[in-house]
Amino acid sequence: MIADHQKMIKSGNGRRDLTSYAGLSTTPSLADTGTKGPPLRQSPTAAVGAVRIDGGNSKEITSSSQGDKFLKQFVTRLKSDGSEAKSLNAMNSADQYRVLEVNVAEVLPIPGCEPVTETLIVSKDVTEIRYQRGNIDSAEPSKPCSYSVVWDDPASLTSVKDNQEEGRGSALAATAPYDEEYGHYCASRTTNTGANVAWNDACVVYHVEKYDGNSTWNFYSSHVSSSCGTNANTNGVLESCGRGVMLSATSPTGYWNSYAPAGPSPDNCRTISNVLNLWTVSVGYTYTSCDEQQVFKYAEAGKMSTYWKGSKKNTSGNNNQVLGATSHHVAVKVGQNDGRPSWSHWWNSDGYYCGGLGLPWCL
Fold first, then answer.
1. Distance between CA atoms of 218 and 165, rounded to whole angstroms?
2. How far apart (Å, rounded) are the C-alpha atoms in residues 310 and 290?
3. E strands along the chain, which residues?
4. DSSP string covering 258-285
5. Residues in CB range of 242: below 8 A, 6 or more apart
6. Which of 19, 138, 199, 243 is the most exposed place for a label (fewest CB within 10 A)?
7. What pLDDT does residue 222 have?
């Protein structure tokens, strides 16, 4: 992602440069030892009906030729604007990522639904991934074959307590407040129904306001984005793509502070603002988009999703061509001594590639 958070998105498809967001959490014990990272684990508070992904129902293909192919395509998309990748080496991606192959019909057997295989690319620090029936977004009605993919933040992003020494009476109170980016990473999901292949790259950047002078609360934001496409020259038509974010079940209690964009927007060219206030400091960016964007903001603190809507077919000959993109920004406050919030992220299976065929298993 561009260091300057105010830089404009490319007009037309609404996609930001996500390059510097591609560097996942850097835990030396993973990158330096050459291990596959910690095993995938079960969340003690996973949603009812959710199935965790582990070594028994997924296949790690990171070191295979197929895994290498997916990694290189992923990196190519993140670097597609030509910017330098500051924290991701395209030729050494396996040091930071794992690639998992998931047979959805085995994980979530739903009679009458088309067999679907998915390939997930996640940080090696991500240890909790779940598949669950139905769409998490209540505003996006679930169809018989709908399901969601959920993953939780690496624990390394939440192990710090911020600003405990602060308060108006502190000698440090004279330090000017400023925004600190304390974490960023990306993930990817490729869905294959045989005739059609679609992908969705999701990134996130976390911010905290330092030296806010508030002795009761700390102020955080989660700035998330999504870009999507289909393989070239297939029947696949991209109709919807996006993603959501919410505080995880193990997070300290958070309370709504702010969010952006303020609401949905129609399919005409306009500027969308993702700028919000943490407390006294603003963070975010504005961008140009000419496509419809749906926005779902929930009563639960920090829970929000956005979706690109349209009907586009990839005729470019380039499997990495971005067809749709969206982003949003949520800010919460957390008690001064409670630690950093932890987040869960999700993708819906909300109509990526029905291809106009009207099949009963269209997602």
1. 12
2. 11
3. 50-52, 58-60, 97-103, 117-123, 129-133, 147-152, 178-192, 197-210, 217-230, 237-247, 254-260, 270-273, 276-277, 282-283, 286-289, 292-297, 304-313, 324-335, 343-348
4. EEES-S-B-SS-EEEE--EESSSSEE--
5. 226, 228, 294, 305, 306, 307, 308, 326, 348, 350
6. 138
7. 97
Q: Per mean pLDDT, which range of 15-24, 230-239, 350-359 is the poorest? A: 15-24
Assign 161 to helix, strand or coil.
coil
Q: In whole angstroms, what is the distance from residue 331 CA to residue 327 CA?
A: 14
> Phi and psi for 319 in degrees, rounded to 5?
-65, -20
pLDDT tens, residue by residue, 192-204? 876 678 899 999 9
Strand-pairing partners, residue 346, are 150, 244
Check: CB of residue 218 under 8 Å from CB of residue 162: yes
| pLDDT (mean) for 164-191 | 76
CB 209 within 8 A of CB 325: no
Query: At 76, is the secondary structure helix, strand, or coil?
Result: helix
Average pLDDT over residues 164-182: 69
Three-class SS state of 148 = strand
Strand partners, 312: 238
Tokens representing 104 are 């959805």
The CA distance from 110 to 115, in Å, is 9
Q: What is the sign, positive or negative, of the torsion defined by CA atoms of 171, 253, 347, 13? A: negative
- In this structure, what token pair is assigned to residue 319? 């499997």
18 alpha-carbon distance from chain centroid: 11
| The two structure tokens encoding residue 129 | 């991934």
pTM recorded for the entire structure: 0.81
